[in-house]
Amino acid sequence: MLIVNNLVKRFNSTLAVDNISFTVKPGKIFGLLGPNGAGKTTTIRTILNIIKPTSGEIIFNGNPITYEYYNIIGYLPEERGLYKRSKVIDVLAYFAALKNLSRRNAINSAESWLKKLHILEYRDRKIEQLSKGNQQKVQLIAAIIHNPSLLILDEPFTGFDPINQQEVKDLILSFVSEGKTIILSTHQMELAEKLSEDILLINNGKSISSGNLSDIKKNFGGNNIRLGFSGSNTFLSQFPEIIKYDNYNNYSDIQLRDEIIPSEFLKKMIEKIEVNHFSIVEPSLNKIFIDLIKRSSD
Amino acid sequence: MMKKILTISMWEYLEKVKTKAFVLSLVITPILIITVTLLPSLLLKEESPTVEIIGIIDTSGIYFNYLEEEFQKYELPNGQRNYVLINLDHVGKSYEAKKRTADLNVVRNLISGYLIIGMTNKDSLFAEYRSNLFGNFKVVARFEEALNHFQTKKILKLAGVQSTLLEKIQDRTIVQQIKISEDGKVSDLDFLTTFFLSVIFILLLMMMVVYSGQMLVRSMIEEKSSRLIEMLVSSSTPDELLTGKILGLSLLGITQILIWVLLGMTLVASSLLPITAFKNIVPMLLFFILGFLFYASLFVGIGSTVSTEQEAQHITTYLSLILMLPVVIAMPAAQNPDFIVTKIFSYIPLTIPTVMLLRLNVQNVSNLEIFVSLVIMVISIFIVTKLSAKIFRIGILSYGNKPTLKEVFRWIKE
User: Fold this and answer.
1) How far apart are CA A125 and CA A137, in angstroms?
2) Which of B231, B232, B401 to mutate: most A Cβ within 10 Å?
3) Domain B45-170's class?
4) How far apart are CA B357 and CA B282, in angstroms?
5) Integer Rg of chain A from CA
6) Which chain A residues in 34-63 lie under 8 Å from chain B, judged by CB atoms?
7) CA nearest to B231 within chain A
8) What whole-number distance in Å separates Cα of residue A237 and Cα of residue B304?
9) Residues A99, B19: C-beta atoms closer than 8 Å
10) Which of A78, A82, A95 has its CB closest to that of B235?
11) CATH code, residues A2-85+131-217
């Protein structure tokens, strides 16, 4: 378990991270979300002990994080690149050795990962001879070759085609099932929404929203329903329960007042029109993200 | 700790040693240096071991016999005559025909070359040596000497100078140089040989520093631009990374030195270089290695602040200029042991290695001076490594704009 308490990082005059706290539970994926320049990378770097925080503490499995934790942390940086003129197996063995794996374990582990990701045939090729997607796979392996218990992935899906994205997603989920602690930093809200249970949304170094994703959704003024019906939609304006609505061909997305219970509203509707679809709609993480960032920037 | 440093240094070493560029530099650098420094003097000094047949086209007909007689004094080590001169006046009828035939003989390697002697309309001598290669400095110099001798004699004779006097005038004095050391040893090694050895060492050091420095900075730029550095510093501390890199680079340097020493030994064995040229080899190697370490640790610090190849090239250019400094002050240093500039440079870490490499061979440097310079070197390496580590810690993670000097100072203070 990773606990970050009141983390502050100041570079000269700029406050990159402003008093951020969060907890990452093992066996769960934690989404670290925010626009570019929000302070995600700085937060990650302080967790990785690459830079020292100005104040605040980072506790991993009950102890403050130190260099000794290097060997159990895996990190995939956002921008990708490897030693282009070196062989795949040599690069992997090097990163494994840096994580204190013996040469033999390193080679074994590298080979089994290469096989799992279907690129074992490139074992002795130079990195520059691989396609971009395969290079990314090699880098992902470099980050996880030592079987880390804390894994930090910065935009792990960029640059992968849908098939490979699926492979990476499966791989991340397999880590989760082993009870590892995972931090996923990304802009891709759809994936973050599917994968993470807890999130932290930051902007300009400040925490905007954090906690359980479904709680956040509930709290996000989210009394929304989708109503399918036949006939004209002009009647919708007659209901005082509706704050606003968007009309589409066969249905309307309706935002109700917070105190209105959707099922009772449905009863009222059925008396008036012929309903052929009714569902409660949660706001998408994407919408929450955009709304909250806008709100915090105003 | 140690294990990671070793891992990093072995990686740095193996990845660089395997490059084609390294292998090339290994072979080409010494060949280049030796060619530039030693070969011309070797060509001039050493007797060529074979008999050379040289043709003479003497339109006046008065020089051939004289030259043939003069050239008899040049002998090969085995007692044979060095040159056989043949008169080519009979090979063709016209001057052009003679030349054509002679040219053909040169191309066919029947003769090494031939000399045309003629008169210009002002009654002065004109001579041309034609052969299939440039660089016959020795034979050309000998022809010049003989012909000038002949001409002077002729003019003086016309002026009525006695022939016995003539011989005396023509006598040349050759100055032998002997270097005396404090311990009373006398060395008859001529200045050029020792000087060239120093120059070779300085050039080797410079090439090594510039070359491996560039290699290091280039790989660091690659690591920075691909953000590989972030994976590295999340696996090892910056100090481990820095030490590993310096160590790897030093291993690379040692490999180069070893190969070059082997090459040097072959040169001694083939007696191209006299063994006495290496009498200062121990302090020279010490200064060489310390110099390399000093510059390597400097490069790691500076290299971590740059983000582009161009910036890296600027830095290496400046550093190589500093390294070349002793060549500029070589002559005054050799002529005047108390030359103040060399004394000062012997105590500045940036210039100690190269200046001492030079002074060791052209001056008599006291053991105390050597010791003090060595101590300064060791202390500076220690300090530079510490400072580099501080710059390195922050430099490797700062991308984009090159930091100003002010910023770098702030990093050091942090």
Assistant:
1) 14
2) B231
3) alpha beta
4) 11
5) 23
6) 45, 48-51
7) A75
8) 65
9) no
10) A95
11) 3.40.50.300
Tell if the CB–CB gap between A70 and B236 is shorter than 8 Å: yes
The per-residue pLDDT for B60 is 77
Contact (CB<8Å) A86/B15:
yes
**CB-nearest partner of B235 from A70, A80, A82:** A70
Spatial distance between the Cα atoms of B129 and A39, rounded to a whole number of angstroms: 78
**Which tokens is B165 given?**
């006097």
The model's pTM: 0.70
CB-closest option in B3, B4, B234 to A75: B234
Q: Mind listing the pLDDT tens digit for each residue in B20-35?
A: 878 887 778 777 777 7
CB contact at 8 A, A100 and A63: no
Distance in angstroms (rounded) separating the CA atoms of residues B114 and B267: 33
Question: Are the Cβ atoms of B231 and A142 closer than 8 angstroms?
Answer: yes
Asked whether the beta carbons of A296 and A287 are under 8 A apart, the reply is no
- Alpha carbons A256 and A280: distance in angstroms, whole number: 11
| Residue A130 to residue A276: CA distance in whole angstroms | 52
Q: Which residue of A has its CA nearest to B235?
A: A70
The Cβ of residue A207 has, within 10 Å, a number of other Cβ atoms equal to 19
Cα gap B213→B226, rounded to integer Å:
20
pLDDT value of residue B183: 55
- Interval A187-216: pLDDT, tens: 888 888 888 889 999 988 888 888 888 888
Asked if the domains at A2-85+131-217 and A223-281 fall in one CATH topology, the answer is no
List the single best residue of B8, B219, B226, B235 to mutate versus A (max A Cβ within 10 A): B235
Residue A182 three-state SS = strand
A199 - beta bridge partners?
A: A31, A211
Give the span between the Cα atoms of A132 and B413, in whole angstroms: 41
Using a CB–CB cut-off of 8 Å, the residues of B that contact A are: 3-4, 7-8, 11, 15, 19, 222, 225-228, 230-237, 397
Q: Where are the domains of chain A?
A: 2-85+131-217, 223-281
The interface predicted TM-score of the complex, written ipTM, equals 0.79
Taking CB atoms within 8 Å and a gap of at least 24, the contacts of A285-292 are A285/A33, A285/A189, A285/A190, A285/A192, A285/A193, A285/A199, A285/A213, A285/A217, A286/A189, A286/A190, A286/A193, A288/A201, A288/A209, A288/A216, A288/A217, A288/A220, A289/A33, A289/A189, A289/A201, A291/A220, A292/A201, A292/A203, A292/A208, A292/A209
Give strand pairing partners of A15: A10
Nearest CA in chain A to B218: A83
Q: What angle do CA B62, B65, B70 make, to 5 degrees?
A: 120
Which chain A residues are closer than 8 Å to B221 by Cβ? none
Provide the pLDDT for residue B38. 63
Between chains, do B397 and A78 touch, taking CB under 8 Å as contact? no
If we measure between CA atoms, which residue out of A258, A182, A226 comes closest to residue A236?
A226
The C-alpha of A130 sits at a distance from chain B's nearest C-alpha, in angstroms, of 16
Angle between helix A162-177 and helix A132-144 axes, rounded to 10 deg = 10
Distance between CA atoms of A106 and A95, rounded to whole angstroms? 9
CATH number of A223-281: 3.30.70
Tokens of B253: 């340097």
Does position B239 have pLDDT exceeding 80, yes or no? yes
pLDDT score recorded for residue B372: 92
